[in-house]
Specification:
Helix content: 55-70%
Radius of gyration: 18 Å
Order of helices and strands: HHHHHHEEHHHHEEH
Number of helices: 11
Number of strands: 4
Length: about 230
Amino acid sequence: MSTDQFGLAEGGYVPDPDRDTALLLDAFYDHLAAILREHALPGELLTAMRARQEELEAAGQHLIVDEPARYNLRLTVALAAAYQVLLPRLGREAAVAAVREAFIEPLGDTMKEGTRAMLDAAPDPFQAMVALSKSREEQAFGKGFVFDRPVDDDQRYHVDVRRCFYHDVLVANGAPELTPAMCAFDANWIEAIEPDRHGFRFDRRTTIGLGGTHCPFHFTRNREAGQA
């Protein structure tokens, strides 16, 4: 049974980059340890990954534009470090798959259940999700990301990510093929949204990591769709 480590279910979640990054990285490395065992690889590689993460983090200090970027850098170079260690041992396809699995799966149920519980308890699930999105844009993503908001009213909240700090860091470390794993992580909360139950839908047709010019995060009330 998953526990709600992020406190989403209570509806009072406030982004805490230090706490959230620590939770994600602990789960990431725990899962990588299991993957190493599955592939009969030495456990010492986990130490090598952590050491490489520290090296990449130190080398990327110039990318830190604000406090959220400090933690986003740490998180992103952890994926790059694990990939660099696994690549010569597993090959590109398997190394990407291993990093993706270790990043997405450990806290997936926690995030999905917590988000669904938050939406179920909210008097207005649409407004609750918009408020959460805006809070994360400011406090968790920060100036390393560039957001456009073409629509922001009571019916629709459409925000387009024009620059992705995660992608920039992965490109700088020669691993842009990992960006889709960062994109896929969002499915952990996207799948909690039930349009018939919560009264709104979410659309994200592409992402920068998948070759798009931007990442559209579009929240739209159901009745708006009916008026279009």
